[in-house]
Amino acid sequence: MKLYNFDTVLTFGQHKGETVAEALKNNPTYLEWCYAHIDDFYVTDAVWYAMDIHRNLEAALKSGGVDANEVRKAIANNKKLHEEKRTKYKKHMMDLFEKELELQLKGNSQSIEEDLPF
Questions:
Q1: Which residue spans within 1-118 are E strands per DSSP?
Q2: Roughly what angle, to the nearest 10 degrees, separates helices 68-106 and 52-63?
Q3: I need a labelling partner for 88 at 20 to 30 A (CA). Which of 1, 21, 96, 97 fits?
Q4: What is the mean pLDDT of residues 22-34?
Q5: Collapsing DSSP states into helix, strand and coil, what is residue 12?
Q6: Residue 84 burial (C-beta neighbours within 10 Å; 0-12, 13-18, 19+)
């Protein structure tokens, strides 16, 4: 599970070695595809808002040349996907933090207990 921000270097795919910002500039639909199709691909809110898909949908809605209800539904689905992924990532990170904190609080108690004579 990885969170991508503008400075994160991509380690896979056709934009391997580029930062997220560079990939957004060079091929914005690539990150939109990654976000929609790769379960463990998470982006910050700032990256999500920078993706063209939202601006394109909102521009289509303003132009009036499309079915407004369909565009509104697509925008709502995009926001829902982002919120679901955001919540999943946050839960994952909180679980990791809780496990690490528990280990820190225990210290070396298990090994000490094994050495006690009683």
A1: 2-4, 41-43
A2: 160
A3: 21
A4: 90
A5: coil
A6: exposed
